[in-house]
Amino acid sequence: LSLLLLAIAFVATGLTNVINKLIVVMGLGEYAVFFTLTAVATGLVVAGIVQLSQKPRIRRRDIVLGLVMGATGGLAMASLIVALRTIPAVTAFPVRSCANIALTAGVSYGLWRERVTPRQWLGIACAIASVYLLV
Amino acid sequence: MSANLFLHIGATAIVLPFFLATGARTHPTALWLGVTCGVFMAVAVIAFFYHMKSALLAVSWTVIGLSIVIPVAVAIMIWGERPTTRQWVGLGLIPVAFVCFAGNGKSGEAES
Question: Complex ipTM, two decimals?
Fold first, then answer.
């Protein structure tokens, strides 16, 4: 089930990126901020419904973490769409992912002391090398 | 899971003033694309949060990062973007990375 959830997140994230590019391809790049606002507001509605359907247990840590993640994510999404107006998708997406992968691996290892097996390190290295070559 | 709710509150709070400050221009097609994108985003975040209850951040986030293969493939096949040989090699490394991640489960647990 865990792998299925990861696969769902993988495909949904990929389709999100396709739509980010689509907004530029359709000549709607000047509405990037409106598009981003609509996307995050829709996400807010869905998240609100999910929250209401469960036991409303809100922790202070979740509030801080969520707000920081959301604020940075919103800025990142708007910036990506602006970048896609001048940079090809085969370059823009890999560049963003390279920083994502490298930073996350570094932080999870350095801050939370997650133990990553040699095989997993190799996978991370392949992913970073892949993104580097794609740029 | 409430972090997911506040994630979207945070994103909306940061984008809304930006939208208002830049003229609040709207477009119906951008609206529907935004709604579709928002649903996919929410599904991705919820699935990822549930997945993370039994997984490592470093590995799982790397897999999510590799989802760039989807827009890149679409860009090549539908929008006619042409990758160089070097970029093809990069694309070829993606399944190798997947193989490295597959089958290990939660082999590395957090120490603290």
Answer: 0.77
